[in-house]
C-alpha cells in the first residue's frame, strides 16, 4: 500500500454548448437583447471520484465521448473542474496528444528546449540530456528541420522522447501508443515498463484492452461522463469488452449491470448447447 | 499566498526565457539581416519622418533642446514598443491556444513573454538612439540616467494594457480592430513628430493625460539635459501600475474560462 498520490473527488465538468460561437460584440449584444443567449448545458463529467496510490497504473476505459480526455485534462490542470477538486502530489508529465506544445516554425532541436521547459525542466538539464533525447527519438539529422515538415509519427516520437527523459511521479498517456511505427511502439512500451519499475504512477487511456491489461494493474470505466466501474484491471476490462459486445443499457446502475452480465453469461453458457440442433423426436 | 505565486513564477522562469527567445527568433527568422532590422528600421523611419516634417511641411520644432531628428526617434521608438507590445500580448492567448489546450502553464506567462520579447527588441533598438545622439553631438549629462524611469514604466504600462487586451480578445475578437484604431489615436496624442507647443486648452490636456506621452516626454527631457517633470512622471507611474493591477485582476478572474473559448 503506497500513499495516495492522486485524489479525484466528486469532479464534475460542465460545458456550455452554445449553438454557434459568439465571439464578437455585435452578435453578443444582439443576442443579449433578444435573449437568445441560452446555452445547452452539457456535463462531460459528473461526480467522478477515485484515488490513485503511488505505483498504481490505472487504465482509463470508455467509448469515444465518455469523458476520458476531459478527465485527464482536469488532472493535468488544463481544465478547471466545475465542481469537486483534484489533488495531486508530485510532478505530472502529461502526454496528451504527443507534440502538443511544439511550435511549428521551430526545428526539432529548438522544440526540445521549448517543450522541455513547458514541462518544467531547466535549460541546463535539457542541454545535458539533448543527445539522449535525439537518440531515443531516432530522428537523426531531421532534428534540425522545422517541425512543420515532420510526419505525425516523427512528432509523436520526439514528444515521447522529451517527456520521458525524467521519471516523473505521474505519467499521463492518452492514446500515445497508437501512433508511431511498430518499432517505436515497442521501444516506448519498453520505456514505460522500465519506468514502472521505478514506481511511477501511470494513467493510461487506450481503446486497446490488451495494452491496458499489459501495462495497468487497475482500471476505471467511464460512460457518458460517469464512472461506472473501477477496480482490478482484468475485471474492468472484461466488463468493458462485454459492454461493447452486448450493448447494455448504459443508464443502468453499475451494480445492476454487473448482475445482468452474470445472468447473461450464465444464460449464454446454458443457451449455447441448445443452439446445436437437438435430435428431433419424431414418431 | 503571495509566496506561492512567486515560487511558481520562479519555477517557470526557464519557460519564460524560452518563450522570449522564441518570439525574437521567429520574428526575424528567414530574413537575411535578422535582428539587425531592429536597428535599421527605426533609423529609416526617423529619416523619413524628419525629411517629411522639416522639408516637406517646413515645420521645424522650436525651443527644443535636442535635434528634431532625435526628438522624433525617441517618440517613434517608444510608441512602436507600446504599440507592438500591446498588440502581440493581445493575441498571446489565442496564438498559444494549441499549447494552452494541452499542457498546464500559468497563462499570464503568454502575454508576459510577448511583452518581454518586444521589450528586448526595443532595448536593442535603443542602440540607435545612443549612436544618433553621439553623431548629432548631444552632450552626455547625468540627466540621461533619468531615462531609466520612463524605460521601466513603459514596460509596466504595456504589460498592463496587454493583459487587459489579451483577456478581452479571448471573448471578443473585435477588440483587435478596435485597438488598431485606438492605438492610432494614442499615436497622434503622443506627439511623436511634432511638439505640443502649438496646442492649448483641451487639446493640450489630451496630450497631458496620455501616460505614453508623459513617458516619451520624460525620455526626451533626459536626453535634453533637463530634469523630469515630477507630476507628469508620477501620473504616468500611477497609471502604469494601475493598469497592471487591473490587468491581473481581470485576467485572473477570467482565465479559467479561456479554455472554453479558444
Explained architecture:
The complex is a heterodimer of chains A (283) and B (262). Chain A is of the alpha/beta class. Chain A folds into two domains: 1-20 and 40-91 and 171-180 and 203-272, 3-Layer(aba) Sandwich (Rossmann fold); 93-167, Orthogonal Bundle (Helicase, Ruva Protein, domain 3). Chain A is built from nine helices and nine strands. Chain A has helices spanning 25-33, 68-75, 108-118, 123-137, 152-163, 182-197, 209-215, 233-246, 254-275; strands spanning 4-17, 40-53, 57-62, 83-88, 92-96, 170-174, 201-205, 218-223, 226-232. In chain A, strand 8 and strand 9 (226-232) form a beta hairpin. In chain A, helix 3 (108-118) packs across helix 5. The longest helix of chain A is centred in the last third of the chain and has 22 residues, at 254-275. The N and C termini of chain A lie far apart (68 Å). Chain B has 262 residues and is an all-alpha fold. Chain B has one domain. Chain B is built from eleven helices and no strands. The radius of gyration of chain B is 19 Å and the shape is globular. Classes of the chains: A alpha/beta (283), B mainly alpha (262). Chain A binds chain B through residues 15-16, 23-26, 28, 76-80, 94, 96-97, 100-101, 103, 105-106, 110, 113-114, 117-123, and chain B through 11-12, 14-15, 17-19, 22, 25-26, 29, 98-105, 171-174, 256, 259-261.
